[in-house]
## 1
Amino acid sequence: MIYLKKFTLLSEDVEYDMICSKKNIFNNLYPLRIFSEKEFRKIEFEPITIFYGGNGSGKTTLLNIIALSIKATKRSVDKKGELFEEYVKKCNHELINQDNCKEMKFISSDDVFDYLLDLKAINSNVNRRKDELVQEYYDYRNTSSEKTNLKQYEEIKNKYDSNRMTVSKYVRTRLRNNNIIQESNGETALDFWQQEIEDNSLYIIDEPENSLSAENQLKLKQFIEESVRFYNCQFIISTHSPFLLALHDAKIYNLDSVPVKTEKWIDLKNVKVYSQFFKELSEEFE
């Protein structure tokens, strides 16, 4: 089933007009130029569509643009700024089969982490520490650099991290038990996806492989394929996991290429690296 059929990003000309009108207002022009420089405008979706690329390729940005444009629900509201919102308003999309669509939802990797963290907190003091770190995060964000004691390395680092990280990442990197996910039930992260995904729905998912072992990534792959085949779901996914890139009949946009193009999963660089690695060690498996 397809609910989001097409999406059109801004052209270079439209972005140029925005830059000219806003250059004296905004120092940060994000998300302008990210996709126009890759000659990437028109996206046509299949029941499973994947955005592949390395860090900084724009995968997460693209998912956020699409989710905000179609008004997909999110667990947490993350303000991207006035320029980002204006960019989204100028994008075009085509939705179909809306009478059959129960929900359109955006799910980030932070959502999975928060779910796992909350479960662990039931029988530990992590929840208390998490709240303290959240408060610490906002305290540092609201503290000017001039008021920070520059003799204290940790304060400088915390101030810097609070400005460049999301609150979830800030908490995660500071929890003493940072391997909390690995110590929890190995099926818990997979359970999250099985609880979140319902029939007749559209899901925009950012790197679902996070927190999942290779075995559970394969289970998630099967679950997604069955949700499409039997339960009329549509998925738009960002990933570089070779297991999820192998999703049956997935349409893959390679955001590392210029111009952006669709490719078979076996032709992607990340998959080829894995393939070559195991070929070189094939004798070890005999």
## 2
Amino acid sequence: MSHIARTRELRPSILDRLLDHDPQAVREPAPARHQYLSELRQSVRRDLENLLNSRFCMIEPPQECPEATHSLLNYGLPDLATVNISDAEKKQRFVQQLERILREYEPRFKSVRVTHLENRERTDRTLRFRIDAVLWADPAPQSVVFDSILEPVSRSVNVKESLHG
């Protein structure tokens, strides 16, 4: 599911192509390369946040439907009320699951690695993690780093692009 043909030119997602940022303009000028890359990074950040704030049903698909495992039925994270991240080993397992989900559902990533970040204060109960990825981009792949925070009370994930990857 997360395969982009290398011969095809990368272009904005269907959502980004449908959004009209300037409805008064009859034609929108083609974006400059730096503008295109900036918009690509912003749309990836937005889509990552949407992916990580989506929850999938924890029911196993039938054995006669093996492809259902890789379908939109499993898009997002498991219900965070059922996820235990109380110790280092469980946090590491959760981070590995995050990485697998990103590989499966973010086709713009050529490669991705997720690492757990330690909290600065012992009383901080948020789960912090960093997403290091390489985006398919033309003419050369682009590295991006996103620092993310999972808030345990609201069970929401905030994703911000890191300026100092």
## 3
Amino acid sequence: MEIKILGPGCPKCKQTEEIVRQAVAEEGVAANIEKVTDIMKIAGYGVFGTPAVIVDGEVKSVGKIPKKEDIKAWIKK
């Protein structure tokens, strides 16, 4: 599973990364978590609000800190 956290490194982006990592650990799934901070790469995903979360190529959240329960639902297979 590939999870990308898009954002320039703002406090909300860091909090989103922490919540994503907690959800992945609690669910026990194998995931490659990548932090994308380059604005041009972020825009390449069609995302213009941060933080954003992409799971396996699908944009799941934009412009807000997602709830841990939502992240867990996204990563369950």
## 4
Amino acid sequence: MRPPGSRVFLPFGVKLFISYLVLIIVPIFLFGYIANTILVNSYRAQMNSNLAGTLKQIRDNIAYKMEDTQRLSDLLYYDESMPLELMRYEEGWVSYQTTKKLLIPKFRQVTDSSNLRIWMSIYLKNGTLPEIYNADPQGTDPLTRGNHWDLYHLNRIENKPWFNAFPPEEYGKTVVWRQVEDDSMFGRISLLRRLVDTRDPMELETIGFIRISVYLSEILQSVDAGKIGSGSMLSVSGEGGRRMYASGESGLLLASELGSKAAIDPDRYTILEETLPELGWKLAAYVPNSVVAQDTRKVNLLTLVICLLSVGLISIVAFGVSRFFSRRVSKVVSVLQRFQQGDFHKRIHYRGNDEFTIIAGSLNKLGEQTEHLIQEVYVTNLKKKEAELETLQAQINPHFLYNTLSSISRLAKFGQVEKQHQMVMNLAKFYRLSLNEGQTVISIYHEIEQVQAYIDIQQVKYGERMEVHFDVDPQIVKYMTVKLILQPFIENALQHAWRGDRIYIRVVGRMDDGSGSIVFRIIDDGSGMTRERVEELSGSGSAMSGLGAGKQRKGYGIRNVNDRIKLYFGSDYGVSLYSRQGIGTCVTIRIPVQRRSRGEIRESTRNRIGRTG
């Protein structure tokens, strides 16, 4: 049998709640699975339908642009006045007038009417009309010059294979889209069409030839794989499966270039095709099955979220029901846990008359009795700590007085009566400031006054051998501090830090914005201390108070000030030392920013002493 301590704690309310959850989750997720399967199948069918519709729309957009280009050729093909003029084989003025008044305006009208960039080449059978064209350097694309036209004689192309292979004329129907000449090199495609004499539809005579070249990318601009999803590809294939244009994933483009669908894994892609009727080309869409799977995952996620929300809402109801039954047990456990943490103020209030009422009464009585015992111990410790604090405060004055009287005694011994008198008067001033109506908490301003009074006493003794400089921020003098926290360290420097016959002491006071405290530093250029001695004086607890008989007097002032600051303001504040032998010592004193009255600080100190006791 396992010991009770090794078992996992599971409250009564949790057990009840878990049983409700099991009854809720199973049917909800079963229903969600069935609904999700139906939604996914429906989504796949809808997606295929949308893709087919998109492909058809792309095909229609391509057909529209091609028809728009063909309508430009219709402006010349169905112009009844043009055959009359082109059949006049008269040179000179007649030829000039025909070209200037009819042909040039007509050709400009055609090129200006185009929404695409076009290069229209007109080949005329009538050799009496002049050729008008731009002599583009070899290897350049004439279409880069924008919409323009060129006029040539038909004999320039009569021996071209593509011209000789042009199908017989059917009135209004014979239009061919093909890449001829350098179209393939520059990514163009050309609309090819005869100009015929339409006056006799039964015997159509060729009077010229039209070639309108456009960029394949503009005709196929709507072939954009982004319309069918990321990772997809749209491909336009010409005769023999040669790829004419493609848009989409680079890996698919390469596979399409290498051959056809055989190079593309059919298990990874769904392939849909449409025929471009004017060109006889194939428009194919390759949609990754992963894209479809990604979208179906969204449906799965939506179904899961709905199931989870349903579980969550019903779980709230189940939680309320289970909590109703377990609430009384939870109250008892809560009070016991608070007692365990040391808080005996917690009480239970039950309505009714049952076993829980008896338990509540017993726990309330136990809490009252325990709290009463703690209060008795607290008051006893509070009085003890206050007595210790007052003793420390009282000890600092005899310590200073002892040192000062020793100095007065030495002055009397050497017969320096005037200095002896001045030191006694300064001592009286110091104690007048120190008494401060019996208050132990004073303003920093008065603390500086006390230090200055002490320096005046020592100035009588040391004269120009001692120099003290104050660098105190005027903004901090309005705040409160425990009195006599600076003087013991100046006294300690004058007693033990001499190196030669002169000493310099600097007193710095600043507001530390980072920690929200006030920092004093007493810096001297004296003999300094060894690292072992600094560690001995800077130790906490027993280390600071456990000095040997010979060293205890030297460390007394540090220990006294440190203890008083910690008793008043807490363990975050106090004294720290830094010293280098032969260089000097820096004493750092840190106190909080206090603007409260002395009574409030005293009450705060009482509370702190009570907690530490």
